[in-house]
Amino acid sequence: MRLISLNVTYGQRQITNGMDLRSSQVLNKPTVEIGGDDLRNFYTLVMVDPDVPSPSNPYLREYLHWLVTDIPATTGTSFGNELVYYENPCPTSGIHRVALILFRQLGRQTVYAPQWRQRFNTREFAENYNLGLPVAAVYFNCQRENGCGGRRTS
Amino acid sequence: MAAIPMATATPTDSMSRVWSMSSLKSSLPSAVTCRLPSPSSRRPVLVSSPSPRLPSFSGLSPVNPLISTGLPGWQSFEDGFKIIDGGGRVYAMRHGRRVPKLNRPPDQRKALLRGLTTQLLKHGRIKTTRARASAMRKFVDKMITLAKDGSLHKRRQALGYIYEKQIVHALFAEVPDRYGERNGGYTRIIRTLPRRGDNAPMAYIELV
């Protein structure tokens, strides 16, 4: 079970596990570079937020933010097929984890997009399309911009 | 001219208990000297300020009785100190005093309230005695108000009060959404049955 390197960069900053970001810093899609050696292998990148709508009550478990398939090894997401377009994480309540998970596909064009973004289940998705276990993953924490202006009389 | 209150100074000369001006002036550096303009000469009036050799203090140190500044009559050494206090008055009764003491000294009281607000913010509802619940309302509301402001300064103030920093970060992330429209009154107290061990009146306090 080989692991592939995964570099996710928002602007200037590269994501490490558990990094804290604000929703203003993740507005645009990141540049993703994956490792591996053989250009004939294709990978799928899934970006999910498991803490929707609030970490203490996540009944919409796992919101799908981004889905890119058919990424050749050693390249990035720009070479892949963006099935679900990037939607920036914008949590209203609490601190949400946002995870990027990389799977290895068995062949080209074997993965299809789900109908809805919410109630996404990554394990079932991996089982349905025979993606197996993830080969790489990274996550960061995302929260809303600062407060609502202190005491208000309105 | 230079008035030296002779009654307060202790004599240095052990032999005689009577001061004399000449012996004093010869031994000390001339602090304040004012010379009246002599009518015969036309020299300008010389007024020398206090000598730069002496540090000029003002404020809380006792004014040196040996430096003549033309001063109040003292009766004892303690009168030279200015007494600064809060204006506190001690009465026999408790009329109008609204700070709950919770049967603890002030440092322990502050620590108890800090611990209780930390736990309430962590769990959302806690059960405690009625006196403690009504005493901690003020501090819970204060923490939520800090979180509503959300600036870095307020975050650091909250970090100085709450014992666990993850709770402060979660609080600052959740409060604008949860309490953005509510003005004050972020807690609710519900009274319950007394505690079995000591029959203390108990209450639930919860975040609204």
TrEMBL record, chain A:
Protein name: Flowering locus T
Stretch forming the signal peptide: none
Matches recorded under SUPFAM superfamilies: PEBP-like
Family: Belongs to the phosphatidylethanolamine-binding protein family.
Taxonomy, superkingdom: Eukaryota
InterPro entries, sorted: PEBP, PEBP-like_sf, PEBP_euk, Phosphatidylethanolamine-bd_CS
TrEMBL record, chain B:
Signal peptide segment: none
KW Plastid (keyword) present: no
Keyword Ribonucleoprotein set for record: yes
MF terms in GO: structural constituent of ribosome
Protein name: Large ribosomal subunit protein bL17c
Gene Ontology CC terms, in alphabetical order: ribonucleoprotein complex; ribosome
Domain of life (superkingdom): Eukaryota
A biological process from GO: translation
